[in-house]
Amino acid sequence: MKKRLLAVAILCTVVSVVNAQQLHYGIKADLNMFKLDGEGIKPNYTLGGRIGVFASYDFTKKWGIQPELLFSQAGAKRDDDFSARYIHNSNDQANKNIKLSYLTLPILLRYNINKMITVNAGPEYSYLIYANENLLTYNQAAFKRSDLGVAAGATLTFDILHVYARYVLGLTDVNNIDDRYSWKTQQAQIGLGINFK
To answer: Which residues, 6+ apart, have CB-to-CB distance to 10 below 8 Å?
Structure first.
């Protein structure tokens, strides 16, 4: 009996702490300008999108954490000199357009300037779940699966609705072909979120 009362007391305490500490969650979507820097790839931003869920938990009035889980679509373009750069295993008939789909997990630290404005920054991990590219012969994959980056941005909150802008700098070399040239990602996003709670 004492154990049950203790369990109920702990549960009530956890629920009250969670409510007091401002736990929020919802859905979000954004436009994603994606750029892949590296030899053999055109250094242009291409338009993609992201959609997913988020949660935010404020430890204090000023500080909190915001994990997200997103499905991201991005693109790049093969440059005219790709075959000259990767002469031994490039596919001369490769498509110009490259389409990439990622499962993305940002974990951001939040700083609430006031009730309306929040700045956030933190690591972002992306896992490549689909790549529509035929850059190499014999169906070899040109892209590594994992991409780790650093994200920073700001959010404006209007009751249940918020708008945000974010920049993500990729730190990982995603070139799976060889070690001669490095490919790194950059992303700029603007989006909209809806708080369910």
So the answer is: none
